[in-house]
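Ticket opened by: R.M.
Priority: normal
Category: complex prediction / small molecule

The reporter submitted a protein together with pyridoxal-5'-phosphate and asked that the result be attached to this ticket for the collaborator who will pick it up next week. Submitted input follows.
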Amino acid sequence: MSREPLIFEISAATKKGFALPQLDVPEKKDALAGLPVRAAMPGFPQVSEVEVVRHFTRLSQANFCIDTSFYPLGSCTMKYNPKINERIAALPDFQGSHPYAPQDLIQGNLEVLKTLEDCLTEITGMDAITLQPSAGAHGELVGMMLIRACLEDRGDPRQIVLIPDSAHGTNPSSAHTCGYRVREVKSNSNGTIDLDALSREMTGEAAALMVTNPNTLGVFEWDILKICEIVHAKGGLVYMDGANMNALVGKFRPGDMGIDVIHLNLHKTFSTPHGGGGPGSGPVGVKKHLEPFLPVPIVERGAAGYRLDFSRPKSIGRVRSFYGNFLVMLKALAYIHSLGAAGLKEVAEIAVLNSNYIRKSLEGVYHLKYASPTLHECVFSDKLQKERGILNIDIAKRLIDYGIHPPTMSFPLIVPGALMIEPTETESRRDLDQFIEAMKAIAREAVETPEVLKSAPHVAPVRRLDETAAARNPVLRWEGPKE
Ligand SMILES: *Cc1c(COP(=O)(O)O)cnc(C)c1O
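Result attached by the on-call engineer:
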């Protein structure tokens, strides 16, 4: 594929994208009097309609997307989402509803919010939920704010949050953003929380434990009951990062196990595609003792219909404008209703089956630091290939040549040279087998033709890029062609 020129490079003063007919009425300049009207648009590209269409269509084809191929990016749940949910979110009555509309005109919207809250409290086993946060990390921050508000209300504010070394990277930054100091808890040789280490660290200074479950190794924290006991016994609260709930939905209710606060990622588990920067939604579920602190407004269901309750004296206040990303919530509700309870359970079963199928098929071909059975994702490393100078990045880049998106790399930090693979529940056996064959072929290439891996990708629009140059030296202005 040749390099797509910038739109400025195909621009020429003689080209036009459209032509308006001659005015057949007098021009009324005074209607625009006082407005800043441009006579010309300097630097604006001039191209024909077909050039615009082809330029952007070609650019769109240079992107990798879930509608064309397998996207095993670990911890991201890059799954295929049914188009029906997009259709429902695009219904004009929903799309056109205005956030300032009076409450009696948006009863249907409020019903969507309340019904989704009901579904998510049922799924998580929590007592109440806020749909406001815009993303997973935002949900974590809100969860930390709720924990802080609750402990301050008890007259026992604390300074530290415990986070296992297998947690998602956003956990420590959310705790830190909320003003807590972070203390790390070590994992044991199974990749789960070491209970002795937890007991040692869980002192009266610790406000909470943030536990990613399943953790970033894809391993379920089997000792979750004991973990909650240890934290609660010292007056702390347990926060669960539930971004990867597709591994658990219908099978395990965090609220039944002693979790006090949880966030979900609707844009992972519940049918909103993500990766382009939003919109997302990170609802936060809580147990009764944290409910008074939830953000306002709260949707109440009463005899006279739905209404928004703003009068909650202990609330941490609003955490974003209006009610959150409404259409993302609508998609989640459509997804939940279309699958039903049995279907949701199958989501978790197939997510776990697919991941274990990959883990078993590639065991021995790639190194597995932790051999524990996994849930929705598995973490290999480049240890075997490294002996021949092949690193995880070479393997990841070569996968592009096989038409597959690279997995998450070098994370979690407790696995050096990690390749973190999350197939998700939407992949067919055939697609999984193709991935496994590609990974096996790459392992053979690492032995026979390592130079092919070192120079991969070969078929992508660009070769290997400097991964930090764009951030360190951003070029944001077109200065004309370079001589
Ligand atoms: C994706 C993810 C997050 C962060 O969610 P964002 O919506 O990207 O902020 C947090 N924790 C885990 C385990 C995740 O997989």
